[in-house]
Design a protein that fits this description.
The protein is of the alpha/beta class. Helices cover 31% and strands 25% of the residues. The chain has helices at 69-76, 98-101, 120-129, 139-149, 165-176, 195-210, 222-228, 246-252, 264-273, 295-304, 319-327, and strands at 28-38, 44-49, 52-54, 58-62, 84-89, 92-94, 105-108, 183-187, 214-219, 231-236, 239-245, 256-260, 277-282, 285-289, 311-315. A hairpin with a 2-residue loop joins strand 13 (277-282) and strand 14. Helix 3 runs parallel beside helix 5 and helix 8 crosses helix 11 (319-327). The longest helix is centred in the middle third of the chain and has 16 residues, at 195-210. The chain is elongated. Bound molecules: adenosine-5'-triphosphate and magnesium ion. The site of magnesium ion has 4 residues, from helix 1.
Amino acid sequence: MAEPSATGPERPGRAPEREPAREGGEDAVIATRGLTKRYRGGQLAVDGLDLTVPAGSVFGFLGPNGSGKTTTIRMLMGLIEPTSGSARVLGLPMPRASRTVLPRVGALIEGPALYGFLSGRDNLLRYDAADPTADPRTRRERVAAALDRVGLAAAGGKKAKAYSLGMKQRLGLAAALLQPRRLLVLDEPTNGLDPQGMREIRTLVRELASDGTTVFLSSHLLDEIEQVCTHAAVMAQGRLITQGAVADLAAGARGRLVVTTPDAGDAARVLKEQGAADVVVDEDRVTAEPPERDLAEVNAALVAARVRVRGFTLERASLEDAFVALTGEGFDVAG
Ligand SMILES: Nc1ncnc2c1ncn2[C@@H]1O[C@H](COP(=O)(O)OP(=O)(O)OP(=O)(O)O)[C@@H](O)[C@H]1O
Ligand SMILES: [Mg+2]
């Protein structure tokens, strides 16, 4: 959306110009069709995935452990071959167009490879030197800026083997930020980070997005996705459950009705009579799945039954509610 025009000058720190029209949606930065991966052992890790990531989005790729997120990302980045189906990244087929696509994509994939005997800074210098599209004249500057951006400026001189998990993760992220990118693909970027670190990464992701970079990030943390993403796809057991704008996904699930009252027992009875399901009493709080009927009538019925109502609200549904509603199960690892 905020990308510079194809004819305009490239400003430093901005995402480079966009591609001409592409297949799989006008503005799709990632588009897969029937993407499938069966590992040699027989495990069907990704099953017929149709994914569309709009340009300019912060796209959350959500799913419990083992649902196929990293496998999908590896296919998108041309690191493994799909068993069937196709993937286009920046409009070009992967893995065939890896050489053209990969320099325009910053990626952080599970367990970034580091040279333990080198400092964080030297790791980045070396990584950048291996990139034929990177300008050696600006290398030191760009490395310093990337270290600063991920909060490693002070620890840049320390050997990578002495880094904590969170510091390694930050260094991996810095590597993805050495050049302005059209697309960032981040596999569990907050893995191993403390709450403060997670907040910093969220802020960074928002900044990058406002520069016009599309950010595709995976996570098994629902609220993290809810806080930072404009769009999301939900995976379970290798299959796509749903995808779309985060606000629409959460709206797909009805929120819970919450009644606060000193007459909780009576309130629970009336709510059941009114057709509410899953009525739960917790001291003076009664929550329930709201019935199909007009909630004004439900409230009136409570009052008519002399239930003293202190509060009557519909709590907004979270992505987790949506997930549970869609899969009929909790957000747990499949066996
Ligand atoms: N190299 C492999 N060989 C065989 N099976 C694999 C391999 N890598 C992953 N799998 C299996 O594929 C499925 C999906 O794994 P994947 O790593 O893609 O999940 P994920 O969503 O990234 O999980 P997590 O949240 O734990 O990172 C799992 O059942 C896993 O055991
Ligand atoms: Mg993974």
